[in-house]
Amino acid sequence: MTDIKTWIKIFTQKVEQTFVGRVWFIGLQGSYGRGEATKTSDIDTVVILDELRLNDLKAYSEMLDTLPDRDFVCGFISGKPELLNWETSDLFQFYYDTTPIKGSLDLLLAKIDRQAVKRAIRIGACNIYHACVHNFVHEKSDDILRSLYKSAVFVLQAVWFYGKGKYIKSQTELQKAINPPSAVLDTALLLKGGACVQLEEMSELLLNWATALIKGYSE
Predict the structure, then answer these.
(1) Roughly how many angstroms between the first and final C-alpha of the chain, as a whole number?
(2) pTM strictly above 0.90
(3) Strand partners of residue 43
(4) Which of 34, 73, 99, 183 has the fewest Cβ atoms nearer than 10 Å?
(5) Pairing of the two strands 43-49 and 23-29
(6) What is the pLDDT of residues 53-75, one digit of tens each?
């Protein structure tokens, strides 16, 4: 596994050297940000600059190529003005799933109202529904279904937040909190742990769950 504390220190130094005086925010998302990483986990970074142009992307890509564990690095880079005007339903998950390394995303909080969280649930459920149907009929891919269950966890975090007003970043803590238990979350964590995909059974569970959310969180 990557020593993330050492890695993120090197990453931060190189980002600041590459974009001198232009870095507004650096953060970490995903399993490393939650403290739930495994040896196969991606390193999901967030970099927000004063503005973003194609030359910045070239410089950023070249900088990433100098880092250890480059094949595991993914994430998000943007300009500050774009982020501040982003679709607010996306900002909900973005804000709460990001661990700050440099700077703060608190400017986004004023944009994340209850309706934004509701849209995040509905849009997430719609996307999962669509992809689940397509996968079952056309692709029949275990990997796609795994990724959809991963996305479902984010939607469940939004559902919990919408009902309780609290964001639970840890997936295992979310599993403990939800009562009665969520079969979708339980399945997602089993798949994350390496369980085999049962395409028909798991697709049906996911499809029924997404259907209920689409109906329950309509306008």
Answers:
(1) 44
(2) yes
(3) 73
(4) 183
(5) antiparallel
(6) 999 999 999 999 999 999 999 99
